[in-house]
Specification:
By secondary structure, this protein is mainly beta. The protein is built from one helix and 13 strands; from the N terminus they run ββββββββββββαβ. The protein starts with a strand and ends in a 7-residue tail after the last strand. The mean pLDDT is 80.
Length: 164
């Protein structure tokens, strides 16, 4: 997956692109997305580029559905993987507003200031490195978008073991 910071009409976004096999993200409300549906022969059938307004499970079959606003109309798109052939869209590109790039799963994360956070399964967070100093007594936050957006964008960190 590739990502880069871009600016569109004065607003900062993180742009993500990946092939279908390596796509790790799901759209979030507020993302600017490109969704594409293709015919079996690979020719393009439909493409929507717009803002995600809602995400929900279809009550009839449990498929993930994304409502995308395009030119004053809403298009409901089933995301690939639900098993309904010919009716599924692939996520081709996500442009996520910087303030929405916040932790969405457990692990170690770094904020825009270089501070390190531990995120638990329930998405509560503890800042363990602040301004270059390590401590387990620091701020603990619950998953609240308005509070976390001032620390965004966050970057997921990976752990490697030395000597192996």
């Amino acid at each position: 997956m590739r990502s880069e910071k871009i600016t569109i009409q004065g607003k900062d976004y993180i742009r993500y692109e990946a092939t279908r096999d390596e796509w790790p993200l799901t759209p979030r409300v507020g993302d600017f997305v490109t969704l594409r549906r293709q015919n079996e022969d690979g020719t393009e059938r439909a493409e929507y580029i717009g803002t995600v307004m809602d995400i929900y499970d279809d009550p009839l079959d449990g498929c993930d559905v994304v409502d995308v606003s395009v030119a004053d109309s809403i298009h409901s798109c089933r995301i690939r993987g639900c098993g309904v052939l010919g009716c599924e869209f692939e996520v081709k590109c996500i442009r996520r507003p910087v303030e929405n790039v916040i932790p969405d799963h457990p692990g170690l994360w770094k904020d825009k200031n270089g501070n390190i956070w531990i995120v638990a399964k329930d998405l509560t967070m503890r800042c363990v490195r602040f301004s270059g100093e390590w401590s387990l007594d620091r701020l603990r936050l619950s998953y609240d978008r308005s509070t976390l957006s001032k620390y965004a964008p966050f970057t997921k960190l990976s752990i490697t073991e030395e000597g192996e």
